Amino acid sequence: MAGKLMNLSNEYEEEEPSQPLNPNNMLNNDWCRGVIRPPESVRSQLKCFHLNTTFIPFLRLTRIKVEEMYKRPHIVVIHEFLSEFEIQILKAWATPGLERTQVVNDTTGAYIPSKDRLAFGNWIKDEQHSAMATISRRISAITGLDLSTAEDANIIRYGVGGYYGHHYDTDVYVVDNPVIKPKRIATWINYLSDVEAGGATVFPYINVAVWPEKGAGLFWYNMLTSGLIDVNTIHGGCPVLVGTKWIVTKWIRPTGQEFRKLCENNLLSYNVLGINS
Ligand SMILES: O=C(O)CCC(=O)C(=O)O
Ligand SMILES: [Fe+2]
């Protein structure tokens, strides 16, 4: 068994996950163990590239290093997105006010503590620190999205055993359930730390695992161009086994994107970083 756990070779890449998709069953599941990857046919299409910043004055003199993790939905990692200074500022800001994180209750819509999310968090507004305002401005420049309507950034610290069960970031329509959860067209996660073991952000329906990398950004669209939820974006944060995981999440709202991400006739067309496909 130990041999199997350690073996990350191709032998396992097409294997079907053996664990049921249960938010409380993040520990030791196949996605978190890193033994499942998208098939070769998907991986061979993925690219690394420098974002074309020619027409983005704010980023003209920077190199934005993009690595695709999946195409549809478009999941990308932006390497070396944050500076060491920004990372230290955000951690120092959050630390004195860290509190147990909560989730939106499906029936009442209220924020409640939950066994699906074990972490400590704090919030920061762009106006509260110029470092955060600059980060939001960079995210906006890279994604082309309006961040003035986005939620405040959520700074999260996961200790050993901390995790976030599988969930959607945007609301899921449930018949007979009057509660409308917030709509989030896209999510941007900043990793403020590496994690020695565990702590991957996983998308179990498409077998994608993103391992935290200090300073990197992770971005994906939760919605198709039609505004429908992309069901393949269900994701979670794996338990931290060794070390501490720090992230800063920006949940981006559809409001304000009307002239930036145009609706398309095709109900199932995908949003992508840059132009749509
Ligand atoms: O901790 C992670 O890797 C995922 C966090 C997440 O899903 C969120 O903040 O919405
Ligand atoms: Fe999430």
From TrEMBL:
<keyword id="KW-0223">Dioxygenase</keyword>
<keyword id="KW-0479">Metal-binding</keyword>
<dbReference type="GO" id="GO:0004656">
    <property type="term" value="F:procollagen-proline 4-dioxygenase activity"/>
</dbReference>
<dbReference type="GO" id="GO:0005783">
    <property type="term" value="C:endoplasmic reticulum"/>
</dbReference>
<dbReference type="InterPro" id="IPR045054">
    <property type="entry name" value="P4HA-like"/>
</dbReference>
<dbReference type="GO" id="GO:0005506">
    <property type="term" value="F:iron ion binding"/>
</dbReference>
<protein>
    <recommendedName>
        <fullName>Fe2OG dioxygenase domain-containing protein</fullName>
    </recommendedName>
</protein>
<keyword id="KW-0847">Vitamin C</keyword>
<keyword id="KW-0560">Oxidoreductase</keyword>
<feature type="region of interest" description="Disordered">
    <location>
        <begin position="1"/>
        <end position="25"/>
    </location>
</feature>
<dbReference type="GO" id="GO:0031418">
    <property type="term" value="F:L-ascorbic acid binding"/>
</dbReference>
<dbReference type="Pfam" id="PF13640">
    <property type="entry name" value="2OG-FeII_Oxy_3"/>
</dbReference>
<feature type="domain" description="Fe2OG dioxygenase">
    <location>
        <begin position="149"/>
        <end position="254"/>
    </location>
</feature>
<dbReference type="InterPro" id="IPR006620">
    <property type="entry name" value="Pro_4_hyd_alph"/>
</dbReference>
<dbReference type="InterPro" id="IPR044862">
    <property type="entry name" value="Pro_4_hyd_alph_FE2OG_OXY"/>
</dbReference>
<keyword id="KW-0408">Iron</keyword>
<dbReference type="InterPro" id="IPR005123">
    <property type="entry name" value="Oxoglu/Fe-dep_dioxygenase_dom"/>
</dbReference>
